[in-house]
């Protein structure tokens, strides 16, 4: 009998790192998640401790292997997924000059506007596929150069969180084409750092990690780390890709016309093209998966993070109820929302609590309830928040459709996909059937499938269809869809009309809150 083979996917996320161990058929054998905080001392700041995240990577791998009780010699690979748009300034002696500045950090907003309006930003976007926004490394580096010159002048390497982890493990700063294509500094045609973007940033190629394909692997772990994790030091570590493009792979949304919608901490709408495509209006991103798979879409800042805000700030009683009943507090909130009519009886919520990426690309955007009346109660506000998150994703889908055509199939993933209420809400607002795979570990599964492809264990990605397991499909309720069709134009018009006011209130907040 052949020896069993095992594959480990690791997803370095914004609020946690997760490791998932699979067998060759895609069955989950063990998993471990380690949480860590997002530090937000001001409304514009969103940072994390890189060393804490590195310890989480080591810890999740160690605990997953321990729980599984497999023979570590059967581990064929470790492959990585990671959140995008992080920046860590590293000095010449490998000292950390900054924390990990995450995608949610908006201190570079005014610099992004200047790049867009005065420094040829749109042309840079068309070459690099990353909309000009405070999230991108291009904008963050310009912010460091102009607002933190003492840090900028000492920086030998502008790293992201995954390149930082790989440097710790193997001593090399490398970045996969997928993460690189989300920096605003990487040319999609020649697959190298873009000369014009580097000129705007004021840096040279030696200050950035070496770009490598997503199939690139390294082996020869430092002995101490291999021993701590309980794995052989020669296990191949496949660099992998970003969490977004791997979520598409992990749900089998890799054929043209198939759209993946994900809501985790943030959210995204993505589809795959055989060639890179950028949007003349600058609304969508284009990120690499492989040379033949380019992911077109739009990411939103405001996904599950908004539901967490709602829970923490307004639902203390509901949280206590959940504790007494030994159920998840989010389940209590969604059940409450399900008691309210579709459309929340005319209450709209714009979920821009952390600014917004697609489709607005406006770091100044702010959240608001609109239509609030004396007849509205807490349960209406809860449902309006859930609906607002999905309304916003629908507006992203409209932009993607202009580039790639109307979707033939929508596949959903992310933490929200565990909730039947969320899934039905999406089907009703999108007005299309929504398919959800049984496995919710899409980014980790995508990382493993990419790793198997990288090491020649599979010839193409078609195997993922057999690995994701049973799927659930939700059909739209036509009466609910009709209501949402009335409200969506109002939602869209409001976000456009408030552009100047977003800037005014954001300026006030920056002035008075830091």
TrEMBL record:
Give one GO term, molecular function aspect. gluconokinase activity
User: What range(s) does the Carbohydrate kinase FGGY C-terminal domain occupy?
Assistant: 260-455
Where in this chain does the record put each Carbohydrate kinase FGGY N-terminal domain?
A: 7-250
Looking at the keywords, is Aminoacyl-tRNA synthetase present? no
The UniProt entry, under PROSITE patterns, shows: FGGY_KINASES_2
Q: What is its EC number?
A: 2.7.1.12
Give a Pfam family name.
FGGY_C
Mind listing the UniProt keywords for this protein, alphabetically? Answer: Kinase, Transferase
Question: Record's InterPro entries?
Answer: ATPase_NBD (IPR043129), Carb_kinase_FGGY (IPR000577), Carb_kinase_FGGY_CS (IPR018483), FGGY_C (IPR018485), FGGY_Carb_Kinase (IPR050406), FGGY_N (IPR018484), Gluconate_kinase (IPR006002)
Recorded hits in Gene3D superfamilies, A to Z, give: 3.30.420.40
Q: What class of enzyme is it?
A: transferase
Give the family per the record: Belongs to the FGGY kinase family.
| Protein name from the UniProt record | Gluconokinase
The encoding gene is gntK
